[in-house]
Amino acid sequence: GRRADGGVFRKVAVQFPDDLLPEAVEVMAAIQSKAAAVRASQPQSEIASVPLDFISLADNTFGACCPDEVTAKHYNADAIVHLGYACFSRSSEMPVFNDTPSWEPNWEAVRDTLRGSFSAMDASRGEGAAAEDPEAGSDQVVLLFHPGVQDVVSRAMAALSEGVFANPAAELSTSGSFAEVKATFADRERHVVISEAVALPPSSATREDLLSTSPTEWCVNGATFPRNTRQRFVFVGPTDAPQLHQLSMVATYNASLGGVDAAEAIAVVATSGAEPIPDGVEGGLEESLRVVRQRVRQRMFNIEHVKAASVVGIVVASLGITNFRETAEHLRALLIRAGKRAYIIYIGHLNQFKLANFVDSVDCFCVIACPNSRIAHFSAKADGILKPLVSPAEVAIALGLSDFMSPAAFTTQFDRVLAVQSTGDGAQQRNGDDGAGDGTLITTRPLNVAVAGTSAIERLHERHYVGLEPKVGETAVQAELVAGRAGIAKGYAAEESAQGTKAGAKH
């Protein structure tokens, strides 16, 4: 392969998920053997004249689905080969090549489900149920596949031509990673979008470039499709896939604008062919809808908490996804403009123990993380997070810079908040740190352990740790060697002897 500047890759990092580590030695040997065979077959090419090294990456800095650019850069790698399930997030600097496990869908079940979606669409049209959104497009079915199906568009078209579409090749247009098909079924023209997960090359786009791109598409696990409130979805893949949570958010957004009810808009063709998804994502469409409904209800609390907060911690839990730095700096600027203190906290895996180090210093956390991270976007009480986790979109809403029903609030793509402009009319200029008198429904004063008005840095310095003081010259010097304790901590021999028990006996 070649770098963006035209040069040849000299060092490639192979990223393994935890479940493939036992086979890492064999996989690396096979990769090196294959690379050597390719180089030997092209002795006169530039590839053969440049040395090529492979290194294996384990113990991922972030989630196993994210490209680990941090570790790869430590070894001066030119590219990453990512093995196993991937979130297909666009990397920030380094090209990533994904090798996901291949699997074969049940095409007959896909055809039956698509027919059912068409029938339900016709029934709703007959009842006069139409979208209230004036910008809504025509009725549309979005067909999404879990990553691992080869040549999705062409194979899906071939399968749907058998018993579904009368003229599948009537009109086929492609845009980005999805194809829109206009074909006939039951004497009516149908609009079907077939989307494929694609790993885009590293992006060096600025915030202005992002604002100039089309804002009319959703992105779910690397698969993009147009925004349209009159959509139904057919997802083909395992029931524990994180795409279901994200599709449920899109369907909830569409339903709020007069579209199909979220519970009726999504159909799942379950399959056990793909590998299970890590990160504790609970399975099932009903569970996904329940989690999303709970998350939307929690949004009002999160917004009020941001309004009342005096200190916000911007937690960056991924350094390999494009625009993470720009998003963090943009959020910090918005919060400072609103009269709040904001601190950017860079961590790896997001968990309760790391966040617990900052609960005395911040009032809430705004998380920038992988779109598929459950704990970042759909945290539960069992996760043990002591302060609210809010999304970048909720921060923008709390500051009066975005609408509650903004599409950015119904996606796990954190960089959507970059489109929010910092205007003097929108940002709430707050005076004081206790949240009183600013129109908020809650206050963070009971949660603060320090005196109101102190900064987060001062609170950190006020902490006291016992047992770490050097106390030079204050400790008595031991004059002679003495016998130490024998036994185990729950019952040393001397203690048991003093209690009149035999040494080593169990209490």
Automatic annotation (TrEMBL):
GO terms for biological process: protein histidyl modification to diphthamide. PANTHER family: 2-(3-AMINO-3-CARBOXYPROPYL)HISTIDINE SYNTHASE SUBUNIT 2, DIPHTHAMIDE BIOSYNTHESIS PROTEIN. InterPro entries: DPH1/DPH2, DPH1/DPH2_1, DPH1/DPH2_3. Keywords: Iron, Iron-sulfur, Metal-binding. This is 2-(3-amino-3-carboxypropyl)histidine synthase subunit 2. The keyword Iron-sulfur applies. One of its GO terms (molecular function) is iron-sulfur cluster binding. The keyword Metal-binding applies. Its cofactor is [4Fe-4S] cluster. The lineage of its organism: Eukaryota, Discoba, Euglenozoa, Kinetoplastea, Metakinetoplastina. Gene3D superfamilies: Diphthamide synthesis DPH1/DPH2 domain 1, Diphthamide synthesis DPH1/DPH2 domain 3. Belongs to the DPH1/DPH2 family. DPH2 subfamily. Pathway: Protein modification; peptidyl-diphthamide biosynthesis.
